[in-house]
Amino acid sequence: GESGGFSAGGDDEVGEMAFKPAGRRLTRWTMEPSEDGHEEHYGGASATDKAVTRRRGLLQRGKSTSLTGAVGAAALWEKGHSGHGVKTGVFDTGVRSDHPHFRRIKERTNWTHEPTLNDGLGHGTFVVGVIAGQDDMCHGFAPDADIYTFRVFTNDQVSYTSWFLDAFNYAIATEINIVNLSIGGPDYLDVPFVEKVNEVTANGIIMVSAIGNDGPLYGTLNNPADMMDVIGVGGIDYSDRIASFSSRGVTTEELPHGAGRLKPDVVTYGRDVSGSKIQGGCRSLSGTSVASPVVAGAITLLASTVPEAHRWEILNPASMKQALVHTASRLGGSVPQTEQGAGKMNLVGAANYLDGYTPRATLHPAEIDATRCGYSGPHCRRSVYKTGMPLVFNYTVLNGMGRNGVIHGEPRFVPKDASMARVLDVDFTFSDVLWPWTGFLGVYVSVSESSSFTGIVEGTIEATVVSPPRLGSNARQVSVAQATLKVKVIATPPREKRVLWDIFHNIPYPPGFIPRDNLDARGDILDWHGDHPFTNYHTAFEKLVDAGYHVEFLGSSFLCFDAKNYGTLLLIDPEEEYTKEEVAKLERDVKEEGLGLAVFGEWFEAGTLAKMRFFDDNTRSWWTPVTGGANVPALNDLLQPFGIAFGSAILNGKVAVGKHAIPISSGANLVRFPAGGYAFMVSSQAASRTARGGAASADSSNGGAYGFGLTPAGKGRVAALGDSGCLDTSHQKGECYTFLIDLVKHLGGGGGDALVNGVTPLSADVGTLSTATPSRMPTDFTPFSKTLGSPEGAACGMDAN
After folding, report:
1. Residue (of 108, 75, 102, 76) closest to 89 by Cα position
2. What is the rounded CA–CA span in Å between residue 755 and residue 769?
3. 636 by DSSP, 3-state: which?
4. Catalytic pick from 81, 99, 101, 123?
5. Prediction pTM value
6. Is 123 a catalytic residue?
7. Residue partners of 745: CB distance under 8 A and separation at least 6
8. Is 64 a catalytic residue?
9. Per residue in 42-101, pLDDT tens?
């Protein structure tokens, strides 16, 4: 049968949006040259998104490789498995009912405002072909599966959350077994969408989704693939190399107090994959939109290997994810888990895992070895020592026993060597309820004050999971989930070698409309990559570690660390507010305890922010930026005791400091700086255009703007740079890692005076207390803040010592 469904917002027209696409964003896909040489390319989810989405180059077509052959589907076909009896839904652009490649298109539904069930773009047809195609030139995995198509995108690549909600409800009602979503976006707080995804999986539907095409940048995981109970898929090529476009982890939802989860879950072929055309025939496509149906097709085939009599008693979102992640093959070389997840999907291994499967709970990842770099990166770049901030690890609990369960009692760390029992203090936090199918287990590792041990400590994390009885039984289900953990304990480093990186005062999207840092990066309207040493600042973090520094993370307020332990405190692109207590403590820490303070700010200009306001056609509401690239008014309050303030100019150019030429891209100027300090001007300065391409922002044509300053402050030192872009891999025009290392050396008391050698200090203050500085936005910042009216601002988390 065929039917059509329409959402409440189905007849709305999409207006000219300059900054946010209407509806949820598609994972960007790239189509190769077709058979006749005509080049096609599809980008974002809507006409609006296409206007702001970076266009990716067309790939050159190489040697054709059999997808199903490379994955090993023939081994299961030879046993008579081909997807029979499995109902798979494809949420995409539709498909023709009489397409020659497909045997069993059972139902097509339309949830858009367009009066058609057919595919006018080709993306939905391709996805269905990868899952269930029967053409020998582009054979799918499960040609005998029952295919249900849900048309949720128009031919203009427009979609709305409400269309998805209606289609999800229908998928639940029709008892679909598996769904593929080759879509994604950065908003993990789209509450109606996220809650509906949870409802879908709670009904036993296995959901597969593309991890995103925002690689090679880190912190770019797309939703819903980043959700615990969804199987998120990244892409590789036929040489088992991570595809450049495949989004990287970690998840950012748990920050700042926790550590991101391991995503993607698995990777598979996503480059130069052959699939079906709209009218028949085959063509190649690349993207995680392609990798997702490879896994969805494989799962459909895997499901058919389980006898129908108890198939759906055994299979569920958790047990299928267990089969994939616990049998995946790690890629060669030093590919970190943030890129490959558990590794390359192993179809035959997963089939063997499910053969005779007994419902159980497991932990993912099953192993973290923080003593060796490579797969365990970035954890391997941190050791544990006395007085240090705890190392934080995030395990996902996969509960194959049922859609709900609990962790019974307290998890435990069992050292491999019993004599090591008193070396580490290991604390835990975990989900109150495992629902649906999954939960988190946070592990905080520090060194016991009574221990003098240095060396390797290895052991097992154990958590007892309890679920309700299975149908027909009165006995509770109990399983002990385990994972190995190995860390390196070292002697406490000297103060000048210890750097504390503040992550508490960063507010990445989506809690609020936080605009991008580089105004010239038109492809991103949001600052959504996490602002974390494991995501878009991972290179800066790695460079510091490689230079011999021990970098710790501050996930709580300034009240939660002892300044005597650290040489330098890093504040990079902060958007948060500061309490009066934090301001007072930091002044004491610098002036009395000798702490070095390095602040990397960003632009904040009222006119530019006003022009960024837009009407979101999906939520029917006005979106207003809650702050600038950084929260300059809050930073100015923090820096006021040191006589430092940022202004509202938006600078572009370079700052020469010693041997370093620091690139400035949409940076703030310094309008106050104390006498006795060193101030450096921006050269080759150009006016920065506002995000809509309007007039130059205020004061940006002033040729005498200071962009960097360095000053003594009591026993300590303070440095302020108006831009963080040289440390941020998101939209980097130039890097400044060696400058960062020299700056930390200078601030922390380890030397590094070459930054100011031969430079004349200021003989008088730059600016006064009456100098004009930016004012806060008129929006209420409280809902987005951890410090304003929130007990979290005064509390020290488990990640603090």
Report:
1. 108
2. 28
3. helix
4. 123
5. 0.91
6. yes
7. 496, 751, 752
8. no
9. 333 333 333 223 222 212 223 335 899 999 999 999 999 999 999 999 999 999 999 999
